[in-house]
TrEMBL record:
Pfam family, one: FliMN_C
Keywords noted in UniProt: Bacterial flagellum, Cell membrane, Cell projection, Chemotaxis, Cilium, Flagellar rotation, Flagellum, Membrane
Keyword presence, Cell membrane: yes
Name of the featured protein: Flagellar motor switch protein FliM
Membrane association type: Peripheral membrane protein
Tagged with keyword Cell membrane: yes
Length: 332
């Protein structure tokens, strides 16, 4: 029968109680025979395993590092973001935990269903806005009176941050996050049932001297289709990732327009240093290449083709005659 594992301190306390008479063996047996009842709250259904929570934490640790770099460049100041916690709670509890007026970015993540909320504490949001407008990053909490220009500036900033979100999730699934809504009142965001389980990843954020939290709320419905991929077994199966078709197509396009150093080698000659120093204008160097023999065409330093020299519209040119077999040595 499986039993509870006691720590060394708990074992010492139990032995001490038995030796001093505070607890006897009969009492201990009777307690073991009693039925142990554990309270279970159906409103707080745990739909994510610890393994899956760890995977989500790992994803958002990558996101935090990349977002720190992006915001540091955009705001021209030091930005530090770290994962503080990752918990699963009812959606209603998340809504109650955020301020009455805050910055809420609603993010769609096709091909996944549902939407994700990125809640930015007003202190952090106004520090960002102050830096964008040329300030020192000071925060004043007047989130309820955001102007249209301020709303647009913050929306553009968070929209750029979604590139980091996409890259952080690329190890699990290729998503295309889109900023669909920008809201300041959480009461207007009844996206799912109040009792629906969500994962909330809290990010500690520091911008200059201002600190605050960025909370990412991910409903269970968003992750339902990729739950198996959030297990450590999936992470450890293989580190090799097959490229997606669009990645192969992009790679092919980049290869096609890549610049290659091409050399038409007329021949070579060996001379002494003294002969080299005595060279003058008009001197002739005898090459080891006969005039009637084809030239070697090198791509970089590797021989690839044989060609004959000529002219096209008064410009020097070569005509490819044959391919060098092997490609790594001069084959005559």
């Amino acid at each position: 029968m499986a039993g509870e594992v006691l720590s060394q301190s708990e074992i010492d306390a139990l032995l001490s109680a038995l030796s001093t008479g505070e607890m006897n063996a009969e009492q201990l047996k009777s307690e073991e025979q009693e039925r142990k009842v554990k309270t279970y709250d159906f409103k707080r259904a745990l739909r994510f395993s610890k393994d899956q929570i760890r995977s989500l934490t790992r994803i958002h640790e990558n996101f935090a590092r990349m977002l720190s770099t992006v915001l540091s460049a955009r705001l021209r100041t030091v930005v530090q973001i770290t994962v503080a916690s990752a918990d699963q709670i009812p959606y209603e509890e998340f809504i109650r935990s955020v301020p009455k007026m805050t910055v809420l970015n609603v993010i769609e993540m096709p091909p996944l269903d549902g939407r994700v909320i990125m809640e930015v504490n007003p202190n952090i949001a106004y520090a960002m806005l102050d830096r964008i407008l040329g300030g020192r990053g000071e925060s004043i909490n007047k989130i309820e009176s955001l102007t249209e220009i301020e709303t647009k500036l913050l929306s553009n900033l968070f929209d750029r941050a979604l590139d980091s979100f996409q890259e952080a999730w690329s190890g699990i699934i290729d998503v295309n996050p889109l900023l669909s809504e920008f809201e300041i009142n959480p009461q207007f965001l009844q996206m799912i049932s109040p009792n629906e389980t969500v994962v909330v990843i809290a990010l500690n954020t520091q911008i200059a001297e201002t600190t605050g939290m960025i909370n990412i709320c991910i409903p269970h419905v968003v992750l339902e289709s990729i739950m198996p991929k959030l297990s450590m077994h999936y992470w450890m199966q293989s580190t090799k990732k097959e490229p997606a078709p669009y990645e192969l197509e992009m790679l092919q396009k980049k290869i096609q327009v890549a610049d290659l150093p091409i050399i038409a080698e007329l021949g070579s000659a060996d001379i002494s240093v003294q002969e080299f120093l005595m060279l003058d204008i008009g001197d002739v160097i005898r090459l080891n290449q006969a005039v009637d023999r084809p030239l070697t065409i090198k791509i970089g330093d590797i021989p690839k083709f044989k060609a004959q020299p000529g002219k096209v519209k008064r410009k020097l040119s070569v005509q490819i005659l044959d391919e060098v077999k092997g490609g790594d040595s001069d084959n005559e």
